[in-house]
TrEMBL record:
Sequence ranges assigned to domain Tetrahaem cytochrome in this UniProt record: 132-215
N-terminal signal peptide: none
Naturally occurring in which organism (per UniProt): Litchfieldella rifensis
Name of the protein in its database record: Cytochrome c3 family protein
Subcellular location: Cell envelope
Length: 216
């Protein structure tokens, strides 16, 4: 019986096979690069907002502490977005007729919250807690960047699993004192070694790498 493929056909089949393999590798490399890029991870994402609220003005210029508005950070999983009456503490006197504040006055009059668009958003199958970080020496800046310089709020960090794990693997060098948690542009005056922060806050780094810490 004659062979199914002649030698020439075998060589051709081999070349085609190698070609397909090379193409598959190229596609997965491309997919991986896109997957890791800021585009895919949402770093740089800054949605439109109903009011052009600026952290640059309020946290930077006026020097308001983050917790003046984000009251949940120490006690809850959520930092929280301030209600309209927090704005009105000042804006019933400041810029009272400004057109750009019309939605704020409207929200107060109708007793309906402003419809802010979320900037940061983890998938539902992950668990995150502000309290766990803010009370253990992790500053807002480590995860949100220089918010005091933002005219529009923007996501600065990728918030991928790999990014979370980079710190969870060895959190010590990322930690700071209790009274510097909301400080922007923090730089350590004295060089406290990482392991001293770990014992200072009583952190158990082994637990931080377990899947069930973030997927429960
Ligand atoms: C005067 C009140 C006020 C102060 C002070 C303030 N914020 Fe905000 N923050 C807001 C409002 C309102 C929003 C929702 C609109 C927006 O995203 O810009 C917001 C949104 C954010 C978001 C994005 C939330 C999301 O949707 O993912 C982050 C992060 C944030 N603030 C961090 C900070 C940090 C850090 C500080 C301190 C340096 C701070 N804020 C100070 C009012 C405030
Ligand atoms: C502690 C007082 C205070 C609070 C609280 C406050 N503001 Fe302001 N806001 C000001 C002052 C003062 C200015 C004017 C700043 C200037 O002239 O540079 C201002 C300016 C603004 C402007 C004009 C654009 C800009 O940023 O320069 C907007 C919009 C605004 N505020 C929205 C809000 C909203 C929304 C809230 C509530 C989440 C809020 N403000 C809470 C004091 C406050
Ligand atoms: C360890 C990282 C980390 C630190 C530290 C951190 N945040 Fe966040 N923050 C996040 C992540 C992640 C989200 C999105 C959470 C989600 O989608 O469930 C978020 C969401 C927010 C939001 C949106 C509303 C909410 O509660 O989800 C605000 C406002 C905010 N952070 C403010 C702050 C402020 C202010 C501080 C410091 C006092 C701070 N964050 C510290 C990671 C962090
Ligand atoms: C800059 C460092 C840093 C980053 C970034 C960070 N974490 Fe953490 N995380 C910590 C520290 C420190 C603790 C406190 C550990 C403790 O309580 O012993 C912690 C605790 C936690 C806890 C609570 C663990 C428990 O059971 O008490 C969860 C959940 C968590 N992190 C999820 C996340 C997720 C999800 C991300 C990414 C979106 C993230 N973290 C990013 C440093 C970080
Ligand atoms: C420190 C928190 C943290 C720990 C620990 C962690 N994850 Fe994740 N994981 C995340 C976050 C945050 C995302 C969402 C990433 C995104 O949206 O890009 C994620 C996403 C995933 C996904 C979806 C695919 C992907 O890569 O986006 C899988 C599957 C997953 N994790 C499995 C695991 C397993 C298995 C473990 C244990 C070996 C683990 N995770 C430990 C935070 C964590």
């Amino acid at each position: 019986m004659a062979p199914l493929f002649r030698p020439r056909a075998n060589a051709l089949a081999f070349v085609i096979l190698v070609g397909i393999l090379a193409l598959l590798v190229a596609i997965s490399v491309f997919a991986y690069v896109v997957y890791r890029s800021p585009y895919q991870t949402d770093a740089g994402y800054a949605p439109e907002q109903p009011v052009p609220f600026s952290h640059h003005t309020h946290a930077g210029g006026l020097g308001l502490d983050c917790q003046y508005c984000h009251t949940g950070v120490e006690t809850s999983d959520f930092a929280g977005i301030p209600p309209t009456r927090t704005c009105m503490t000042c804006h019933s006197q400041e810029w009272t007729n400004a057109e750009m504040l019309a939605p704020v006055r409207d929200s107060l009059a109708r007793q309906e919250p402003l419809a802010w668009n979320r900037v940061h958003n983890l998938p539902d199958f992950t668990y995150f807690s502000h309290r766990a970080h803010v009370n253990n020496g992790v500053g807002c800046e480590s995860c949100h960047g220089r918010v005091d310089e933002m005219r529009m709020t923007v996501q600065r960090k990728p918030l991928t699993m790999e990014w979370c794990l980079e710190c969870h693997r060895d959190p010590g060098p990322h930690l700071r004192p209790e009274n510097e948690i909301t400080t922007m542009g923090y730089s350590a005056e004295e060089d406290t070694p990482g392991h001293e922060w770990i014992s200072h806050y009583g952190i158990h780094p082994d637990r931080l790498m377990e899947c069930s810490t973030c997927h429960r």
